Amino acid sequence: MKRAPPILLLCAALVLVAALAQAEGAPPVGVPPVGARSHGPALQGVSETIAIPIGREARTMALLGDVGFDRPTGDGLVWRNIAIAQAQVTFALSRVQTKQRVGEIVVKHRDMAAPGDRLGREFALKIRVLDPNPAVVVALDAGAASILSRDTGGYFAVVGQPSPAPLLWTAFGAMVAWAGLLLASQLRNRQQKRVNLRFKPTHLLPALIQLVLYGYWSSQVSEVYGQLPRIAIQLVFAFALDALLGLTLRRQWDLTFGPVPIVLSTNLFVWFPPGAFHLSLAVIALAIASKWLLQRQGRHVFNPSAFGIAVVGAACIAMPNVARFQDIAHLISEPRWMLALIVGLGLIAQLRVPIVLITLSSSAVLLGLKAVGAYHVVYPFWPAILLALTLLATDPATVPQTSLGKLFYGLSFGLLVWATSAVLTLCGESDFFGKVLPMPLVNMLVPQFDRAGDWLAARLVRRAQWLVQALEPRWNWAHVAIWAALAGAHAVR
What we know:
By secondary structure, the protein is an alpha+beta fold. It folds into 3 domains: about 1-25 and about 165-335, no CATH class; about 50-160; about 355-493, no CATH class. The protein contains 18 helices and 11 strands. It has helices at about 5-25, 55-60, 135-150, 165-190, 200-220, 225-250, 260-270, 275-295, 305-320, 330-335, 340-350, 355-370, 385-390, 405-425, 440-445, 445-465, 465-470, 475-490; strands spanning about 45-50, 75-85, 90-95, 100-110, 120, 125-130, 155-160, 195, 250-255, 295, 300. The strands form 4 sheets. Strands 2-3-4-6-5 form a 5-stranded antiparallel beta sheet. The protein is globular, with a radius of gyration of 24 Å. Residues about 20-45 have low confidence and may be disordered.
């Protein structure tokens, strides 16, 4: 009995993931989307939705002006985390010493108020007491009073969100047609397109590191569970697209773990609301396509995840009413030991491959800018930023090969992260994508960093040969020890 051609299996997988994506991309029948208004006219195919515009971070933080954000109270409590979702904001009150969350205030639009909510001019506040300590209740009341006193209106916006269904079905229909053409070509020319099983440790290690991160993150933050079905859909989509490109361009496809770290790392940096689920598939499509189509000397030029996030992130900044994202920087920073876990897992990769100079130099730049009082501080030991410096910027396939080249690469990346975030903030935009947007640029300049490193090494050999030798890969364990001491001191604070 002959085995079914792999392309037939691809078609079946694409039809399945299209149906799942359609179900995920639109709310169930009879259930309005998150933030939907209960009144007002609606255009055909467009839902009128209450949303928080991009660039509300500074104004959101200012709502706690009477009590102060990240400023400990006399009772050992602090307002530490602010999570901005599509149509609500969550202010979290924690203990200074243990970082345990003891209460929170959820702010929504008045149109979505529930019984018992405190109402302001535009806001509806729900106070959740997680620890009945009297000091906690007093602090929550003070925070609510501060928010309501600054409720001057105009915080929310009403946007029209077109249904993603036509776009999703068009994209998947094109992929099924693509697979059908490949099958017809194979039957006509009788040329078997092969599928090879190749499990590379370089793909398996980052996937395992990311799975550990997800395991701890999901145990501390309930919102992560809701993202897992979307990640599963993205994984099927990523493998299918990777197979289509491989069978088209090389007449064979190597089944590896490659798409897994791409999908997992993407979801560590950005989520999209259900109505914009097609954007998450766009990120994955750009990432997979860049790996196959944008190559230099047989290797992909860009970190695939960073390329996809950067392109879609730029669209979200340019067209906020059309392309919306969910800011998860605070969610990933919420677990108490997340920073220590990122540092510890990063050490595994850094000991195996000499990449720590990149993280060390980029962190040094950001710490230096903070020390001199630069505009808009980007703190490298905030989990959302450290993830970019440790896991995203250090893809061995897209970084310089020389030690000095890695130093130049890291210094440039750190400086560009700060500059991009500062410019976005100055323009009244969210700096959420500031940690990713510079990545394609530094990836593209890798040959220049290596040439600059060789040029400097040739001159240092005559005057400071010890410095060149100290940066050699054989001293990677010492570089890792320096980074561990620096990062460890901040991780246990």
